[in-house]
Amino acid sequence: MRDGRPSLAKRFPGLCGFLGGFLASFLLIGIGAQALAQDQSRSAQSVQPTRHFRVERPADLTGQDALTIYARILDTMTAAYGLSGDATSKTYRGWRRYNRVPYRSATHGERFVNNYANALAKAYGSFESAGPMPKGALLAKDSFAVTARGDVFSGPLFLMEKMAPGFSPANNDWRYSMIMPDGSIFGETGGPGSARVVFCHTCHAEVGDADNLFFVPEGNRVRFLNQSAAE
Questions:
Q1: pLDDT > 70? residue 138
Q2: Is 11-210 in CATH node 3.50.70?
Q3: CA–CA separation, 64 vs 62, rounded Å?
Q4: Which residues pair with 146 in a beta bridge?
Q5: Residues facing residue 145 across a β-bridge
Q6: Contact 128, 60 (CB under 8 A)
Q7: Which of 3-17, 57-71, 146-160, 197-211 has the lowest mean pLDDT?
Q8: 142-152, pLDDT tens digit by residue?
Q9: How confident is the model at residue 53 (pLDDT cuts 50, 70, 90)?
Q10: CA distance linking residue 114 with residue 99, whole number of Å
């Protein structure tokens, strides 16, 4: 029991085998996530989404529980993202992560997410004082879902890349991409499926004065002592 709450295993008995390395990792992450991603990709081929697909009855996890699950599934998640052929999907986990533990994001369909930034985007660690990002700055947000009954699914990888001036002035020259859990590319600004990520532009435009950036919630931020150092 932690902070008066039962342990992860007691609250979500379906995760016991998963966390112990049992067959659930294959069933839930391998088959389940790929089927979910394929269904979502097919259903969105002819439509323009207005928001992220939402997780029904998401679990309420402690930060430590979410971190434990994330550590178990990260290798599987990144291997699948890498099937997209996108270089960032294979390298982002080596960047700085600016959240202490995964947190549930309402704007990302109630999935648990993590915020990574490459060296050119190191100013992200200054949060609201970050200022405009330079060309080549990359932000990555991977995701996973946990339902109230204990099912675990990997989620999309969300990417933002600062392009050359003039690429998309209305969006502060950011390119948005979404890679599904099976490695398929759902959409990319100015590329295949561009219309399917317009809702990303719309959402981030709400913080246009902050270079279209949202930040890690207060209380979950990692502040590096050598923030100004190049990586």
A1: yes
A2: yes
A3: 5
A4: 152
A5: 153
A6: no
A7: 3-17
A8: 999 999 999 99
A9: low
A10: 6
Q: Report angle CA 55, 102, 145 to the nearest 5 degrees.
A: 20
Q: How far is CA 124 from CA 7, 87, 143, 175, 208, in A?
A: 34, 21, 19, 17, 15
- Rounded to a whole number of angstroms, the distance between the first and last alpha carbons of the chain is 39
DSSP string, 145-165: EEBTT--EEE--EEEEEE--T
**Nearest residue to 160 via CA among 146, 145, 140:** 140
pLDDT digits (tens, 9 = 90+) for 200-231: 989 999 999 999 999 999 999 999 987 666 45
Most confident of the ranges 20-24, 41-45, 55-59: 55-59
The rounded Cα 169 to chain-centroid distance in angstroms is: 25
- Per-residue confidence (pLDDT) for residue 43, from 0 to 100: 47
Are the C-beta atoms of 84 and 77 separated by less than 8 Å?
no
CA distance 28 to 191: 31
* Nearest by Cα to 138 from 213, 70, 193: 213
Q: What is the pTM of this model?
A: 0.81
The two structure tokens encoding residue 112: 């648990």
Phi, psi dihedral angles at 203 (to 5 degrees):
-65, -50
CA–CA gap between residue 151 and residue 146 (Å, rounded): 6
- Written as one letter, the residue type at 59 is A
- Report pLDDT for 7: 57
108, 52 in Cβ contact below 8 A? yes
Residue showing tokens 């675990």: 152
Backbone angles phi, psi at 105, to 5 degrees: -110, 115
